[in-house]
Amino acid sequence: MAERIAFRMVLNPGQAEEYRRRHDEIWPEMVNALREAGISDYTIWLDPETNHLFATLVRADDHKMDQLPATEVNRRWWDFMADVMQYTERNEPVVVPLQNVFTMK
Known about the structure:
By secondary structure, the protein is an alpha+beta fold. The protein has a single domain, classed as Alpha-Beta Plaits. Helices cover about 25% and strands about 25% of the residues. The chain is built from 3 helices and 4 strands. Strands 2-3-1-4 form a 4-stranded antiparallel beta sheet. A hairpin with a 4-residue loop joins strand 2 and strand 3. The longest helix is centred in the C-terminal third of the chain and has 10 residues, at about 70-80. It is globular, with a radius of gyration of 14 Å. About 5% of the residues are buried.
């Protein structure tokens, strides 16, 4: 059964429009890599008061999300986004997993 997960990232101040523009023009090969990793229904929201990005996605039981960081296209995407978001010392977005506390079905 597929699983929905949520996480938080942080946008650099003043970068909301640039972040949106880049995602409006997301590379088809990046979308393909996400789908091949078993990811669907990927949505990102912005809280403009805190610059926090809130994301949810659905991943298949046999997902390969953990293999995405090693792909060439994912590495290029992260390099492309590094100037608009908070990143770790390993040049990866700071991602904080969120815990589900309620689901209405």
